[in-house]
Structures are given as structure tokens and as C-alpha cells.
Design goal:
This protein is mostly beta strands. Helix content is about 5%, strand content about 40%. The chain is built from 1 helix and 56 strands. Strands 30, 31, 32, 33, 34, 35, 36 and 37 form an 8-stranded antiparallel beta sheet that branches. A hairpin with a 5-residue loop joins strand 18 and strand 19. The N terminus and C terminus are likely disordered.
Length: about 675
């Protein structure tokens, strides 16, 4: 990835995507991504809209934990309180209501009915009916809980930050703190029976292992040769256990932890999860930042670890976070953006859930409830997706471009009807289709600016704007020629909207708002009253418009921009796009899955439950109550007055060539 890709429009989101992933997935230092939501409750959904996943399926939140009780029954947990359940070996998955938006880091089921999930700020959830109902249990801590282990019956242990250990003997009705003897984070715990268990963690330069044989009344540190963080541990009986961690660390004991012996993993990637179904058969998973995931398998207790490569994932997501094996043949691996890999033959083949992409999607445009196009990043040709059935199926279209080294970012898309549309992107890319996206023709922009916004009032008259140089280009002949517009000093521009061929508004850096009333011959600065970056603009008529931007900024005008009045959005997250289905009903989307809705033309806004904390970059409402939002890691969400929820089926896919991840 070249350096320029690291310094484009969304610097704070780059930090979130890169460093935030490191902190959240690795050490869990600092503030939670979900801190903006209530600890154990859903956000306000009084507008009544319901958003459902169209890609990936069954959902696209990061999955952090998995528990299989047999070959058919498994439960997955992850970001934004996600809980997903299968009872038929993964042929079908059901999203369950957890009642929380906190990240759930781990889950443990003792049978098909009884299970416990733990997560951020001391969250503990319990089900006794297979997840039909999840009840919050008081943990007595606000520390993040990173792992949980239940044995048969009601005895369980949860561990987490600050060396926290919590113990229950009554199915979680009460949780009692235990003394671990450490202040370091404990990332993994495994009990072989109600009395005997092991917890692992670490600090820089040291692996920490603690052992109890009396149900946690005493936790004894065990000597070990590890010098790296340990992230997970799996015991099949009181004697045989394996711990994994940073730099490809695998430690093995066959005497209950009196001695831990390093094993050769053959990798320096961080190993995050381990699961043994018996003392010989085990699977380890992990990944490296900026690289690919890894699956290791042993059938001889770890004397030999063999990397498994018989799995495929679309570009964009490869980080694997957890694994569970119910027997020597059956296992499930989960990871970022909803990755689910399953094997029924001991890892000879891993099948993945359906997804058209895990790469970032930046723009979306629907011309009616059924017909829409989404664009984003892909190596080598950029991502263009097309649907004609309301998003139940999305089909890839070729851009006709190619950059096999870095891939291509396409940022904006606008269709004036079902056939005629324009896409813009990095380094002055402008593409045009007149056949619904089957063929895309490059147009000459005469700029290398990164073009983010595009809007057409009809098939001939359109405008695009760029960020790096504050470019505005205008066409009156469908893009056969693009004419640069003069705006004075260059200003980074991100959004543009025209109500007719002469009246238009562009927005961008430092609260800039520019207005033209003569088809772009002159652009006049307007007073926004803010220095926040403004990301998107929409007008419902020549006088009435909405601008959205950083820190939850919403500005409204009813006089063509002569005055812009700030509105209370009710959120502090950056808003990245806005779309109105009619004069009164509009939706804005943004950082951390934020969706807000207005039904009075933008005078008041209500947060809607998106079901995700993936950043949402684009939104399109062709009708009052029907719309799509797109975002990070291939996220496509849909809300509609009616329509069936698509059922995912497992489909093996060709393995992609590893590629650099796009910068949001």
C-alpha cells in the first residue's frame, strides 16, 4: 500500500481501523469502541425501522468467541452484542437477541440449552433455552471479561482484565470474585472439571499461567518457558492441556501444568485460539496484523503442527479470533467481519459462509426499491456490485480497470435511472455505464485528484468533487467532456448535490460550504458556522437542504444556504452520508454503525438500531421507508417495509491471493 493511501480523507478512521484493531483484538487497552452505547441496553429505536444484513451473511460484525456442543449445535458471539446460533451444523444460522451492544468476547455451553457469554464492562449473559432468551447476570465488575469456562452442571469461571477471576456454582445467579494474584489481563481459561482449571495471560516479556485444583479458592502460578502473551488455553482432562499466544507460541503440558514444554508451531503469527477435542486432536488459529490468518492442526498432541490451507475467503478480512472443536472431525473458526469457517472432516476442507466481499464499500445508489449499485475497494479492479432484486443477491461487475499492486478504491456512485450511472474514485477515475453496469467506460477527467462525490440531475448534467485539491468538475454531455470549475483557493471537497442544472451545493474540509446558482460558473462560500469536516449534502428542493459531518454535525437550511442552522443529531459519531426518500424522511449514517433518522425534514433526528459497529460510508433511500447502507468489511444493510430475509447457504469459494487492505 503506498503512503498516500494512509493520509486520505478519513484520518481518524484510519487510526480506528489500524491501531484500534490492534488494541481491541490484542491487548484491549483504552476505551471501548462501544462506549457510546449503553452498557446493557439497545439504543433508541423509536422510529421503528429494522435493518437486516445482506452482506456478509448471516451477519458482518466481528465474531470473538465460539462454542460447539456437538456436530450440529453451536453458538457464536462478537461485537455489538452479536449472538448467532446453528442447530443443523451451520447450514442455517439464526441471529439471537442478546439485549446488549457491548462486545461479547467468549461463550461456553455445557449442552444444547445452557450457555454463558461474557464481554466488555463486566457483561455476563446466561441462557437456559438455547439462546431463545438471554438474561443479564450481575458480575460485580466493570472490567472487560475475556474468557469463560463452564463444566457440566452450574459451575463456571470467567476471567479478564486486571487479573479478574469470577466464579459461580449456581449457574450465574451469583458470581464471586477470586484472587488471581496478578493485575495482568487473563485472556483464556479452561476447566476440565468443577475443581480443576487453568487461566492464562501475560505481560510484556512474560507468559502467565495460573492453576486451581479446588474450584478457584486458590490460584497457583505455574512456571513456564514462555516469554509472550498467552491468549487461550484448552484442557481435555486434568493433565493434558495446550496454551497459545504471541509470536507463534504453543506450550504443552501432560502433567497438569507442572511442566510446560514449547512446541514448534512453524509460525510467528499471533495465535489467538486453541481447541482440543481429545488429547491428540487439536486446532489452533490466529493471524498477523496487516497479513493473513492461520489455521494449524495436530493429530498427535502437538508433536507436529500442520498448517491447513484448504479454505477460502473473499478479499478484505482474514483475522481469525476463536475456534471450537466438538470432536476430532467437527470444528468452527470465527473472525473479523463475521468470518465463519467450518470443517466436518478434521480440517481437510474448511467451508465459508456466503459473501460477495469483505472489502470496504464506500458508496451506494438505488434508483428504485429493487435496483442498486454499490462501490468500494478491490484488488485489482475496484469493487462494483449490482442488485436488481432489492439486494437479496449482489453480482460483481467488472470496472475494466486494473491495479494489481494496490488495487483500486471507488468512492462515489450515482445513477439517474436503472441504466445510466457514474462512478468516481482515486486518481481522477470516472466511469460511465449506460447498460445498468454491465459495461463501464472510462472518461477523461484530466485530474489526479481523489474524487469522492458525484451527482447528476439528468443523464447529461453532472458534477464531481475531489478532496486532495478541492476539485470540482462539471459535465453537460454525460461525461464526454468534464470542465474544471474555479473555486479560488483549493479546499478539500467530499459531497455535492444539485437540485437542477444550475443550483448546487458542495461541502468539505473545515466546514466549507460552496453554492452555485449558475451551473457552476461561480461558486460562492456560505457560512456554515462550524469548522468540522462536512461529509455529505442533500437537498429536497432548491431551498431546503441538509449537511452532515464530523462530531454528529447536522446543518439545515430552508433558504438555499443563506443561513445554515445546526440541528441536534443526538449522536457524537462522525456522519459520513445522508439520503432522503422524500421531503420529510431522511437517514444519515456514519462511524461505528451510526444510523439516525428524521421524519420532519431534518428538524429532529432519532438514532436507529443498525445492529453493527462497522463504519457505514454510504446510504441510499429511493423510497420513504426502503433503503440500503454500505460500509466497512463489505457491510450491506437493508431496511424495507416488507421483504424476506435471505437464507445463507455454504458455498466453497476459490482462495484469493493475499492483498493489501484498503484504507478507509
Amino acid at each position: 500500500m503506498n503512503a498516500r493511501r494512509l493520509t486520505i480523507v478519513l484520518p481518524f478512521l484510519v487510526i480506528t481501523a489500524v491501531y484500534g484493531l490492534v488494541l481491541a483484538s490484542h491487548l484491549e487497552l483504552g476505551q471501548s469502541r462501544n462506549a457510546v452505547h449503553t452498557a446493557n441496553g439497545r439504543a433508541d429505536t423509536s422510529s421503528g425501522a429494522q435493518w437486516r444484513w445482506q452482506n456478509p451473511l448471516p451477519q458482518g460484525n466481528n465474531l470473538r468467541g465460539v462454542s460447539l456442543v456437538d456436530a450440529n449445535t453451536g453458538t457464536l458471539v462478537g461485537d455489538y452484542g452479536t449472538i448467532v446460533r446453528t442447530t443443523d451444523g451451520g447450514n442455517n444460522w439464526t441471529i439471537q437477541s442478546s439485549g446488549t451492544t457491548q462486545t461479547l468476547w467468549a461463550v461456553s455451553f455445557t449442552d444444547s440449552s445452557n450457555g454463558t457469554a461474557v464481554g466488555e464492562v463486566g457483561t455476563i449473559l446466561r441462557t437456559t433455552d438455547g439462546g431463545a432468551n438471554w438474561m443479564t447476570q450481575p458480575s460485580g465488575t466493570v472490567m472487560n471479561l475475556r474468557a469463560v469456562s463452564f463444566t457440566a452442571g452450574n459451575s463456571g469461571t470467567a476471567v479478564g482484565e486486571g487479573g479478574v477471576i469470577l466464579r459461580t456454582t449456581n449457574g450465574g445467579s451469583t458470581w464471586v470474585p477470586q484472587s488471581s494474584g496478578t493485575a495482568e489481563t487473563l485472556f483464556g481459561v479452561s476447566f476440565s472439571n468443577s475443581s480443576t482449571g487453568t487461566a492464562v495471560g501475560g505481560t510484556f516479556g512474560k507468559s502467565e499461567i495460573f492453576r486451581t485444583t479446588d474450584g478457584g479458592q486458590h490460584w497457583i502460578p505455574q512456571a513456564n518457558p514462555g516469554t509472550e502473551f498467552l491468549f487461550d488455553v484448552s484442557f481435555t482432562d486434568t493433565n493434558n492441556g495446550t496454551a497459545v499466544g504471541d509470536q507463534g507460541t504453543i506450550l504443552r503440558t501432560t502433567d497438569g501444568g507442572n511442566n510446560w514444554v514449547p512446541q514448534t508451531s512453524g509460525t510467528t503469527k499471533t495465535l489467538y485460539g486453541v481447541s482440543f477435542s481429545d488429547e491428540n486432536n487439536g486446532t489452533v488459529i490466529g493471524f498477523e496484523f496487516g497479513g493473513t490468518g492461520i489455521i494449524l492442526r495436530t493429530t498427535d498432541g502437538g508433536q507436529n503442527w500442520v498448517e491447513q490451507t484448504s479454505y477460502s475467503l473473499p478479499q478484505g478480512a482474514s483475522s481469525l479470533f476463536a475456534v471450537s472443536c466438538s470432536d476430532a472431525n467437527t470444528g468452527t473458526v470465527v473472525g473479523e467481519a463475521g468470518i465463519i469457517l467450518q470443517t466436518a472432516n478434521g480440517g481437510q476442507q474448511w467451508s465459508s459462509q456466503p459473501s460477495v466481499t469483505f472489502n470496504y464499500l464506500y458508496g451506494v445508489s438505488f434508483t428504485d426499491a429493487n435496483t442498486g449499485t454499490a462501490v468500494g475497494y478491490e484488488n485489482p479492479d475496484g469493487m462494483i456490485l449490482r442488485t436488481t432484486d432489492g439486494g437479496n443477491t449482489w453480482v460483481r461487475k467488472s470496472s475494466g480497470l486494473s491495479d494489481p499492486f494496490d488495487g483500486i478504491n471507488l468512492f462515489g456512485v450515482y445513477f439517474v435511472n436503472s441504466n445510466i450511472g457514474t462512478v468516481v474514485g482515486e486518481e481522477g477515475i470516472i466511469l460511465r455505464t449506460t447498460d445498468g453496469g454491465n459495461n463501464w467506460v472510462p472518461q477523461t477527467s484530466d485530474t489526479t485528484d481523489w474524487l469522492y462525490g458525484v451527482h447528476f440531475t439528468d443523464e447529461n448534467n453532472g458534477t464531481v468533487v475531489g478532496f486532495l485539491n478541492g476539485t470540482i468538475l462539471r459535465t453537460t454531455d454525460g461525461g464526454q467532456s468534464w470542465v474544471p470549475q474555479s473555486i479560488g483557493q483549493a479546499t478539500g471537497l467530499l459531497g455535492v448535490y444539485f437540485t437542477d442544472t444550475i443550483n448546487g451545493t458542495a461541502v468539505g474540509n473545515d466546514g466549507v460550504i460552496l453554492r452555485t446558482t449558475d451551473g457552476g460558473q461561480n461558486w460562492i462560500p456560505q457560512t456554515s458556522g462550524t469548522a468540522n469536516q462536512l461529509r455529505a449534502v442533500w437537498f429536497t428542493d432548491s431551498d431546503t437542504g441538509i449537511v452532515a459531518g464530523d462530531q454528529g454535525t447536522i446543518l439545515r437550511t430552508t433558504d438555499g444556504g443563506e443561513s445554515w442552522v445546526p440541528q441536534d443529531s443526538g449522536v457524537s459519531e462522525t456522519l459520513l452520508n445522508v439520503s432522503f426518500g422524500d421531503a420529510l424522511n431522511g437517514t444519515a449514517v456514519g462511524q461505528l454503525g451510526t444510523i439516525i433518522r428524521t421524519t420532519d425534514g431534518g428538524q429532529s433526528w432519532v438514532r436507529e438500531e443498525s445492529g453493527t459497529n462497522q463504519d457505514l460510508y454510504g446510504v441510499s433511500f429511493p423510497e420513504t421507508n426502503t433503503g440500503n447502507a454500505v460500509g466497512a468489511f463489505g457491510a450491506i444493510l437493508r431496511t424495507a417495509a416488507q421483504g424476506p430475509t435471505p437464507r445463507p447457504t455454504l458455498t466453497p469459494r476459490p482462495r484469493p491471493t493475499p492483498a493489501p487492505r484498503p484504507t478507509p
